[in-house]
Design a protein that fits this description.
Elements lengths: L2 H11 L6 H11 L2 E8 L5 E2 L15 E8 L27 E2 L4 H7 L3 E2 L3 E6 L5 H14 L4 E5 L4 H10 L7 E4 L4 H11 L3 E5 L16 H18 L2 E7 L18 E6 L6 E9 L7 E7 L2 E4 L4 H4 L10 E8 L2 E13 L7 E4 L3 H14 L7 E7 L11 H13 L7 E2 L3 E2 L5 E2 L4 H10 L3 E2 L8 H6 L3
Parallel strand pairs: 6-10, 6-11, 7-8, 7-9, 9-10, 17-18, 19-22
Antiparallel strand pairs: 1-2, 1-3, 4-5, 11-12, 12-13, 13-14, 15-16, 16-18, 20-21
Helix pairs in contact: 1-2, 6-7, 9-10
């Protein structure tokens, strides 16, 4: 009897024991041929021959040799059991077991607080305030008597304690660990079963099952999968802090987003005093909510009325200034757009933009000159969104065009006027989503909305503003 026949007999007599998996493996490998390939330990890219530099991630000396089996054939004698299915109508829906983070802005983004057993990925640029935010969350939850574990592979216990004390956060009930082995961290979570655990950061954690350096793609993936399983088993909500690469992704393009339950990004320019907490994935709630924070000496404070941080306390009419209402998720913000027009001293006029897409502003300049008759081609144009805010939606087109026209004519728009609308290439003004929400925000702050009638051209609208 051959080896293959022996395995087949075991499969027939022990079908429920799971030995058929070995039969599939052997039958698939029996006709396979070994082939040497090279894979990158940093990004997992595969190559048919050895290279000094990985062409995918650009790292040097990261390719390792491995043997792959090719030419495998299917095992015809092995029957794979069918998957079990359930009717959704027979499943009793239950509300998630949630608990508050102690910060209403964060609860808003999470959809009502942390879900027990969830895995949350928090990303952001270095120095944006990720550790500060998670520290405040830990202190708030621990103050209510719940167990909290803070794991840091980047800072010592003394450094973390000093940061908590400097920000005025109570750290007496927060447990700390500097362990960087994921298996040891999981054992501690199973032994203590805390309500919340923070891993700062996932790039410093390594698994004993992966023979690669911490921070590599394979290590980050393996550690995340193990922490996800531990979170589901213990009911502990786990926050993974991840560094953002130069491409704006956490630990590489789409490395962890599909593994975790919630993905949050903390955004903001370090030169400005505000931060935006944005949810880009949430299995337990909406991703249209945005949390707003202000950075100060005591950490991150919540901003209940975001429009206040982008508007001066006393506003005066001046040429080149216009107000508009933009949406971050479902939250309306009133922001000020400023423009300056100056005759160029060179053959090619200069275009400088801060807080918006330069190409969008150049498009509006072309429409102003062609459709509204404003000869702007001989002038330098400077556009700035006050407060360091970055506008990403076309609803601010009308305000930008009005600010440029106001600067060009040296005539001010009313200081209590708010305008929005998308400008088309034909000079038409188009409607934007959620106008009722924008109007409500403007009226609550005492501003008057400049209503734009359907079908009016850019020339007619600008003519009624000055």
């Amino acid at each position: 009897m051959t080896i293959a026949a022996f395995f087949y007999c075991v499969y027939v007599s022990k079908r429920s024991g799971g030995f058929y998996l070995e039969v599939i493996l052997y039958s698939a490998m029996s006709n396979a041929k070994p082939k040497v390939i090279y894979h990158c330990v940093n990004c997992d890219a595969q190559f048919p021959k050895w290279l000094g530099q990985c062409s995918s991630c650009g790292k040097w000396g990261t390719l390792e040799e491995e043997v792959a089996m090719v030419g495998a054939t299917n095992a015809k004698a092995v029957a794979i059991p069918s998957a079990k299915t359930l009717q959704l109508a027979d499943i009793v829906a239950q509300a998630e077991d949630r608990f508050s983070s102690g910060i209403s802005e964060m609860d808003r983004v999470l959809g009502g607080g942390f879900v027990a057993g969830s895995l949350v990925l928090l990303g952001g640029d270095p120095g944006v305030g990720k550790s500060t935010l998670t520290g405040q969350v830990c202190a708030g939850i621990a103050a209510r008597g719940a167990g909290v574990v803070y794991v840091s592979g980047e800072e010592s216990a003394r450094q973390v304690k000093m940061r908590f004390d400097r920000l005025g956060m109570h750290s007496d009930a927060v447990a700390f660990s500097s362990e960087t082995t994921v298996e040891a961290i999981i054992s501690a979570l199973k032994a203590t079963s805390p309500a919340l655990a923070v891993i700062d950061s996932i790039q410093t954690i390594a698994s004993l099952d992966v023979q690669q350096e911490p921070g590599s793609i394979t290590q980050v993936r393996a550690c995340t999968v193990k922490l996800l399983q531990a979170a589901k088993e213990t009911g502990t909500a786990v926050i993974l802090i991840g560094h953002v690469t130069k491409d704006g992704a956490v630990a590489g393009p789409r490395t962890l987003e599909h593994l975790v339950d919630v993905v949050l990004y903390l955004e903001g320019d370090q030169s400005s005093g505000y931060r935006l907490l944005r949810g880009v994935k949430n299995r337990f709630g909406s991703t249209s909510e945005v949390g707003v924070f202000a950075m100060n000496e005591k950490g991150l404070s919540e901003v209940s009325n975001p429009s206040r941080i982008f508007l001066p306390t006393e506003r005066h009419s001046s040429p080149g200034s216009a107000l508009t209402v933009v949406l971050e998720g479902v939250r309306p913000f009133i922001v000020e757009i400023q423009a300056l027009v100056s005759r160029t001293q060179f053959g090619y006029p200069k275009r400088t933009v801060s807080g918006m897409d330069l190409n969008r502003v150049q498009l509006l300049l072309a429409v102003l000159e062609r459709r509204a008759g404003i000869a702007i081609s001989a002038y330098d144009v400077f556009v700035n969104v006050v407060g360091g805010y970055k506008i990403k939606e076309p609803a601010a087109d009308m305000a930008v065009a009005a600010a440029i026209a106001s600067a060009y004519k040296n005539s001010a728009i009313r200081n209590d006027a708010v305008v929005w609308g998308e400008v088309g290439l034909a000079g038409e003004i188009r409607r934007v989503p959620h106008e009722d929400r924008r109007k409500k925000e403007a009226e609550q702050l005492g501003f008057q909305v400049l209503e734009i009638e359907q079908g009016k051209s850019l020339t007619e609208v600008l003519g009624g503003m000055f």
